[in-house]
Amino acid sequence: MAPVPLSPINVGHIDDVQELRKDRPSTIPDRYVRDMVERPTLDTVPLSSSLQIPIIDLSKLIKGNKDQSQSELLKLYSSCKDWGFFQVINHGIETSLLEAIEKVAMDFFMLPLEEKEKYPMAPGTVQGYGHAFVFSEDQKLDWCNMLALGVEPHYIRNPKLWPTKPAKLSETIEMYSSNIRKLCQNLLRFIAVSLSLIQDTFDEMFGVAVQAVRMNYYPPCSRPDLVLGLSPHSDGSAITVLQQGKGSSVGLQILKDNIWVPVQPVPNALVINIGDTLEVLTNGKYKSVEHRAVTHKENDRLSIVTFYAPSYEIELGPLPELVDENNPCMYRRYNHGEYSHYYITNKLQGKKTLDFAKIST
């Protein structure tokens, strides 16, 4: 049985990190200071390390010759199986659109606090401006401001939470999200083929897929060794697309063999990661991976994240093609809407939310 969710609480403007940074640039309130075991420490590989997440060239999968396509497909298979993360290049999204979404996102975060607070993230929800996944007065906060919006299907949107400033924000999100949706559909087709499944397996199964966008702004922090930009977690999505802001500090880290590996931005590439839902569907062959964000003493960071998942009405479980004597069923069947509710009403704690679907042994 799933644990009873903690009661969500309000996090007021007093905890807005941009305002904290503005008013007391050298002060780190206790609410942000992590316990020793959670702090970013030396268990992170150096940025100069050759340990880098794989890069997938989507154009080779779509338009390459037979040898190129097969080689890239094998690389995609190993990326999903061994890393759960990869960066995709030649993805077909115009550089001008990537730049436009970064500009409106940054323009929003630079607005006065009273303007941003017109779109508050209500307790127990994940849409609007503020802190998500906060359920107790003594829970540590992430050194991050975020704006999260439901995009598709339309009924999940809350129009009151779509900012009217900057003027082109809504229009740009619509265009960007449409392009990212096509990318997700393309990637899932190739992911299906990499598993020897019919190409449209996920597209047909997902129904009208759920899509949400979240913009994260991480101000500089005088003591980056004491805080986290975003708590360690895996995503509840099928796949997640992350755009790292141009010129931002390196902040994304993934847990690989119990070591935190920083993800070096590649110009105009998008970072893709496997979510819990795809781990369940592949019966653990492709695993969602724990990741976190750290802060920088002098530089800020912007990221734009898109979550892509099945319709809330869909019942999910491991695909029969991926269950056999050597790979017994690891997850139960469940309603995706129930899992989504469970995910957003629990704290970010590594991969703990996936316990919802695991079969007890």
UniProtKB/TrEMBL annotation:
One of its GO terms (molecular function) is metal ion binding. Belongs to the iron/ascorbate-dependent oxidoreductase family. Residues 201-310 form the Fe2OG dioxygenase domain. This is Fe2OG dioxygenase domain-containing protein. It comes from Tetracentron sinense. InterPro entries: DIOX_N, IPNS-like_FE2OG_OXY, IPNS-like_sf, Oxoglu/Fe-dep_dioxygenase_dom, Plant_2OG-oxidoreductases. It holds the Pfam family DIOX_N. Keywords: Iron, Metal-binding, Oxidoreductase.
